[in-house]
Amino acid sequence: MTKKPTLSFLASHGGSAAKEIIRAIQNKTLFANIGLVITNNKNSAISQWCQDNGIKTTCISTSTHPDSEQEDKAIKHALTAVATDFVILSGYMKRIRQQTLKRFSNKILNVHPALLPKHGGQGMYGDRVHQAVLNAKETTSGASIHFINEIYDDGPIIAQQEVPVHPDDTVETLRKRVQAIEAMLYIESITQIIKNY
Q1: Does 87 map to a domain?
Q2: Residue 124, SS3?
């Protein structure tokens, strides 16, 4: 039997995709183990959800580690301590630094709320992305799952799924349409990666 890979998560706020992936693991629809959830916000909704659901969680931030290199080292060690095989980003609002990138090269996945390479890069996250899509008068948007590297939203794309952009869309309506596909696209992508693991 194939070894179940261990997935750990980095999230800053609600971690909606992380929750869905964890539920898929708990329901045995995703062949993996849960490592831990790291947040940089001790009062985040994902932190509380983890505590309520018995998921190991820790806060590593500039509050706990003011020096960015020490923060990076702490994240790397926390992930390594639970034998993490893949790191899943779920609305993590910080840059992944060199030690963690090196230790988990081609093993850190992110979801971006647009069809990369369009509307990606530094500062392009959340509603900023949806506003850029609307400003560009795009007729389609969607979600991209990609590996991360040193450059924002530049790593190899694993999967993409399109959604239509309607002429009367607002940032909120477009966000909801994209969010509706993100978790399932993430789960499908992780499933494919695990098959080749």
Answers
A1: yes
A2: coil
Q: Tell me, yes or no, whether 155 lies in a domain.
A: no
pTM over cut 0.70: yes
* Residues 6+ away with beta carbon under 8 Å from 154: 117, 120
Cα 137 to its chain centre, rounded Å, is 27
CATH number of the domain that 41 lies in? Answer: 3.40.50.170
Mutual angle of helices 16-26 and 45-52, in 10-degree steps:
20
Which residue blocks in the chain are alpha helix, DSSP H?
16-26, 45-52, 68-81, 98-103, 126-135, 171-195
Question: Among this protein's residues, is 112 annotated catalytic?
Answer: yes
Asked whether residue 186 is assigned to any structural domain, the reply reads: no
pLDDT in tens, 31-82: 999 999 999 999 999 999 999 999 999 999 999 999 999 999 999 999 999 9
Considering 13, 65, 112, 130, which one is annotated as catalytic? 112
Structural domain contains residue 78: yes
